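dumping this here so i dont lose it
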């Protein structure tokens, strides 16, 4: 079920990625995949951590290929991301994970930091 909520800003952001990722963690758990690409600030980092703690597989874009490494860097520093990859390898990794049975992606592929 999806619902739009016109609530207050979260961490100064509206809409906030943290709100979306928290909802995904609570409702999809290990059946989810999360990614944070280049962006300013730290929005999404805590939500991605909640997703990972709920069993989702997660990744961030590496610093070398990010225009601004704020959002992915914050998530990486929190331990929210399982993998850190350059932009040109992210789509392939997401397709690998999405092709696996729900909840089985984490153990099926070794963690990577191709940075």
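and the seq i came up w/
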């Amino acid at each position: 079920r999806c619902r739009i909520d016109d609530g207050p800003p979260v961490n100064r952001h509206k809409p906030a990625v943290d709100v979306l990722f928290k909802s995904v963690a609570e409702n999809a758990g290990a059946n989810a995949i999360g990614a944070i690409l280049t962006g300013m600030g730290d929005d999404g980092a805590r939500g991605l951590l909640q997703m990972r703690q709920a069993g989702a597989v997660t990744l961030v874009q590496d610093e070398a290929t990010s225009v601004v490494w704020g959002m992915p860097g914050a998530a990486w520093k929190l331990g929210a991301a399982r993998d850190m990859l350059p932009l040109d390898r992210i789509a392939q990794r997401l397709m690998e994970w999405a092709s696996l049975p729900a909840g089985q992606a984490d153990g099926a592929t070794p963690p990577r930091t191709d940075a």
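Residues 49 and 80 are 4 Å apart (CA to CA).
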